[in-house]
Amino acid sequence: MADTPDVPSYATVDAANRSAPRFSRLSPEARRQEILLAARRCLARSGVAGFTVAEIAATAGISNGLIGHYFPTKDDLLVATYEAEATRLLVATRAALESNDDSDSDFRLRALVDSAFCPEIFNAETVATWLALWGQVCTNPTLRKAHAEIYAPYRRAFSRAITRAADARGLSLESDAIAFDMSALIDGLWLDWALDPTLFDAAAARASCYRLLAAHGLDLKQD
After folding, report:
1. Rounded to the nearest 10 degrees, what angle do helices 175-195 and 141-169 cross at?
2. What gap in Å lies between CA 67 and CA 57, rounded to an integer?
């Protein structure tokens, strides 16, 4: 898994904003993250219809012009929001990878599955944000390019983890194809959960992914 940018988390920015005086001057990076936090909240709350400069500015408590200073076009802000959400996923994945025992040939595969449904990521606001962003990938060439660049290394990480687990069992598998299937399954589970969160919970979602792997001879023990 590639390294991720060392940027303030949404939680850090949110806490800083609550404790700062109303008219305090934030650092450029903190202000940028504040705008991205407001953008994700607008997407989660109202979808693309709520992704307007006026609505995002009102949510962040800043002027419309200040948003333009950091993001010249709405497309720039949309792509940056997508990349920020992808970074959050990568950070959660990296944390899961670093918390496991590298001597276990299955740990990376388990971590990749489990991190996709960890509480920090698999929640109503995050899933709603991704649902809105995915809808734009279909019609926005710039966002489609960002999507392809973000998903490719994610699938490669799954492929490498599948290969490692298969090698430990003496299996020869089409790791790239299984990684694609796994990525599609995770996206589908997120979509189904967004449409009806009463259908299943995070544990059931992880179990679905584990069943797919078990069908290829990779029967992993769940923690």
Report:
1. 120
2. 7
Q: How much of the chain is in helix, strand and coil states, percent to nearest 5?
A: 70, 0, 30
Burial of 45 (0-12, 13-18, 19+ CB in 10 A): middle
**pTM summary value:** 0.79
User: Over the stretch 195-213, which tens digit does the pLDDT of each residue have?
Assistant: 999 999 999 999 999 999 9
Amino acid at position 73, single letter:
T
Residues 6 or more apart from 58 whose CB is under 8 A from it? none
pLDDT by residue (tens digit) across 126-181? 999 999 999 999 888 888 988 888 889 889 999 999 999 999 999 999 999 999 99
H-helix or E-strand spanning residue 218: none
Give one DSSP letter per residue of 189-206, joined into a string: HHHHHHH-TTS--HHHHH
